[in-house]
Amino acid sequence: MKMRKKSLFQTATRIAAAAVAAFALSGLAATAARADELAKDLFGAQKLPAATTPHSYGFYSKGCFSGGVAIATDGPTWQAMRLSRNRRWGHPTMIRLIEKLSHDAVADGWPGLLVGDISQPRGGPMLTGHASHQIGLDADIWFTPMPDHRLTPVERENMSATSLVNEKTHLVIDKLWSPAHERLLKRAASYPEVERILVNPGIKKKLCDTVKGDRTWLRKIRPFWGHDYHFHVRIGCQPGSVGCKAQESTPAGDGCDKSLAWWFTEEPWRPNKNPDAPKARDVMTMASLPKECRAVLNAPSPQSEAAVTMGDTGGSGVATTKPDAAKPTIDVGEPPVPANAFAPTPIKRPPLPLPKPSR
């Protein structure tokens, strides 16, 4: 009888051990499965930001961010476009800068900004489009001036931006270019927190050929594929964002040199040798993003979009949105801290651009 009880006990022990092992394996399998999940699907499904302190994690093309806020759909000096994409979100410093640029641009004679994509509510890779815009520190501004009326939702979705560049010659179409475009770019480059502005190579060349007087700001204007109907503003990693990976400093000089001449050779425009290769965003998994991005996904959302939408600031840089007492207060961080975009760079010569990316 004792032997039988001992045998039964051993059998039960083995069964329990097997069950524990199976549970552990299933947990590991689940963890592995979550790690293999496509990041674009998870971040693209988020409708609201992570209601925590603003932080950017990772790099502009591989990361995420928390504590995001949205720019208001309409302001006295801007209108947001392509609202269905839900990409009006950014780090509070980025949103404040867009509002400031809109006010300053109007003072310079520009009718107002049409604001394109900034980021998804929690950043991360997008379902379509950009490779970057993942950490709340990038924003696209259309070269098309704001019209004299409020656009309807349908107009915001279907209105086409005007390309300023001839796609065959890669040069600016002179009849579409004006001194106001130069003033707008110069104003955007004037802010110390802006590290670089991406434009089409033809636009960079136009500036190189025509800008008189102070040309130091041209260093921030960087040529890149696309960007013929909008310019891309990028600010640096913000204070407190431990884990945010800074971009290499821009090379010294105004950029009107051999590095620009390269863009007017055949090499940059050769057909992609592997056009069917998947884009980075389409294969990027959670395992490839900073570990903090899982916490960003799991963080609570604010009570509503209105609670974290920044309205008009009157040019002050301080949001006037006032959440009521029942809504959670979102920390929008300190005022922008100037970042030195002219820091010495160890690069002895301007690096040639990488092969044509998919954007």
How would you describe the overall organization of this protein?
This protein is α/β, with parallel strands linked by helices and 359 residues long. Helices cover 28% and strands 13% of the residues. Strand 4 (74-75) and strand 5 (78-80) form a beta hairpin. The termini are far apart.
Supply database-style keywords.
9 helices, three-stranded mixed beta sheet, four-stranded mixed beta sheet, alpha/beta, 359 residues, single chain
Indicate the topology.
Elements: H1 2-36, H2 39-44, E1 55-59, E2 62-66, E3 69-71, E4 74-75, E5 78-80, E6 89-90, H3 92-107, E7 113-115, E8 138-142, H4 153-158, H5 179-190, E9 194-199, H6 201-210, E10 221-223, E11 230-235, H7 258-261, H8 280-283, H9 292-298, E12 309-310
Parallel strand pairs: 3-12, 5-7, 9-10
Antiparallel strand pairs: 1-2, 3-6, 4-5, 8-11, 9-11
Number of DSSP strand runs: 12
Strand order of the largest sheet: 8-11-9-10
Largest sheet: 4 strands, mixed
Share of residues in strands: 5-15%
SS-derived structural category: alpha/beta
Q: List low-confidence stretches.
A: 19-33, 313-359
- Helix share of residues? 25-40%
Number of helices: 9
Question: What's the end-to-end separation, in Å?
Answer: 75 Å
Radius of gyration (Å):
24 Å
Order of helices and strands: HHEEEEEEHEEHHEHEEHHHE
Average of per-residue pLDDT values: 82
